[in-house]
Amino acid sequence: MTGSWWREAVLYQVYPRSFADGNGDGIGDLRGLIDRLEYLEWLGIDGIWLNPIHPSPDVDWGYDVSDYLSVHPDLGALEDVDRLVHEAAERGIRVLLDLVPNHTSIRHPWFREHPEYYVWADRVPNNWRAVFGGPAWELDSASGRYYLHNFAPEQPDLDWWSPEVRSEFDRILRFWFDRGVAGFRIDVAHALVKDRELRDDLPATEEDHPHTRAEGIRRVNSMNRPETHEILREWRVLADAYAPPRVLLGEAYVLDVPAWARYYGTGSDELDLAFNFALVHSQLEAEQLRAVVAETEASLPEGAWTCWIGSNHDAGRLATRWCAGDETLARCALLMLLTLRGTPCLYHGDELGLTDGEVPPERVLDVAEPSRDPCRTPMPWTRDGGWTEPWLPLADTTHNVEDQRSDGDSTLSLVRDLIAARRRLPDLSHGAYEEVPTPPGAWAWRRGGGVVVALNLGERRVEIEPVIGTIMLSTDRNRDGEPVAGRLSLDPAQGVVVECS
Ligand code: NOJ
Ligand code: CA
Questions:
Q1: Phi first, then psi: what are they for 97, rounded to 5°?
Q2: How far is the CA of 103 from the centre of ligand 1 (A)?
Q3: Which residues are known to be catalytic?
Q4: How far is the CA of 484 from the centre of ligand 2 (A)?
Q5: H-helix or E-strand containing 421?
Q6: Which residue minimizes the CA distance to atom 8 of ligand 1?
Q7: Which of 210, 324, 415, 461 is the most buried (most CB within 10 A)?
Q8: Do 103 and 186 meet the contact criterion of CB atoms below 8 Å apart?
């Protein structure tokens, strides 16, 4: 679709506190990020998504916003956002911010000045559970009433039935879009509207995704209400009034793929992109991954475009979660993310094959249990990390930018070459997806007729045919340029991109 830059883009998630520190206080910030734009341009990404940068008491590290229209002093100031947007644009990179519309910080002035913006009950009205554990209702001693919090008690949920709340957020969206922000990642985009009668959620059943079953609850009234689609449609209109249209990338955390796909509306009137969490929750195993992709292809409405991720600041890093630290497997996972049909979003550090860090109990800062801090540790820039006393301990610095940038065989070079290949071969970024038959353990697909991608995630060598062409990129690099004359053989934990002839 013309003008939809993000369809052919590679996005890159920056967790601001852990990316790069511009003033040496141990906390990553906007200046640090601006200083690293050269690296991001070299890597070849097209857009950055920044986790929340607003003032916040940081109970949930920025996801408890106390002022949506300014910048957390630890991270910089409004002028730094302007400079970031401007300097990124000069390098062909767009900037997406994180919109947190489901809840505010309890310290947001609205909570006292506009209590009617929130969801209240005189007594605990239902069985709703907070995602971080315990009941979702908390007694407010000042008013003697209970307020709703789907996450921490310090994150009261807004009442999206309120027209004032809707207008406030229209203003917030416009404020940032007017400053040149390219779009928003929308936090818990599936949760905004609550059941008007506050009816109970349902028990999970055998039909639910294993993750939902493990939680024991199917959130049909505290989240996932159909009325939320109306808000997404309104935002779509607002975002489309800009040139270029601003992007809405939803964290619609829904694991049932057809239900998740509904957040795209007709395909052009709700979200532009939504993270595909069904893939995140699969194992790195051919059958499971193939099934998610097939179901995604079958469920997306005409024109809709998915966003593939393997890591983020909640789910953990793919090199640990999918690959148990095995870098050859991590390379397969990265090759997959960058060659499926859709927009890939890398989490900073993915490109190095970085694993989750270790955070000793006395240094844990996360409100959730188990703590998500291991996947939020600072980006290793050099062999000694390149940080002075960072806010979270540095993970393994043997995986660092400096070493990998100068090594043509590194994971970083593979990722950069894959991103460049997407530019060179349009089929790789927007060609149709078609499965290619493979023996068990392997998974292969054609993109638009010109490219075949094949992965061997099993334990035995496999042969896939017919494939005719030249290996353009291989995960272990020593097969780059090899001709394939019908039969493609792959060792375990090996993946290739073949340019077909
Ligand atoms: C999803 C965010 O990614 C996560 O970090 C946060 O804790 C919750 N939403 C609540 O805002
Ligand atoms: Ca800093």
A1: -100, 175
A2: 10
A3: 187, 251
A4: 50
A5: helix 411-424
A6: 63
A7: 415
A8: no
Share of the chain above pLDDT 70, in %: 99
pTM over 0.90: yes
Alpha-helical regions (H) of 285-391: 286-299, 318-321, 327-337
Which residue's alpha carbon is nearest to atom 3 within ligand 1? 314
Q: Whose CA is nearest to atom 6 of ligand 1?
A: 63
Phi, psi of 173 (to 5 degrees): -60, -45
Q: Average pLDDT over the chain, rounded to whole? A: 97
Integer angstrom CA distances of residue 81 from 33, 76, 94, 329, 382: 10, 8, 12, 37, 26
Residues 119 and 147: beta-carbon distance below 8 Å: yes
Distance 316 CA to ligand 1 centre (A): 13
CA 320 – ligand 2 centroid, Å: 27
Q: Which ligand is located closest to the Cα atom of residue 391?
A: 2
Evaluate if residue 1 carries a pLDDT over 60.
no
Closest CA to 413 of 470, 490, 357, 353: 353
Tell me how far apart the terminal alpha carbons of the chain are, to the nearest angstrom.
27
Token couple for 214: 């493990």
What DSSP line would sit under 106-172, residue for residue?
TTSTHHHH-GGGB-EESS--S--B-TTSSBSEEEETTTTEEEE-SS-TTSPBB-TT-HHHHHHHHHH
For 490, the 3-state DSSP assignment is strand
Q: Say which ligand is closest to the CA of 130.
A: 1
pLDDT tens digits, 48-59: 999 999 999 999
What's the order of all strands across the beta sheet hosting 343-347? 273-274, 247-250, 183-186, 94-99, 47-50, 11-14, 343-347, 307-308
More confident of the two residues 3 and 387: 387
Structure-token pair, residue 205 = 């059943």
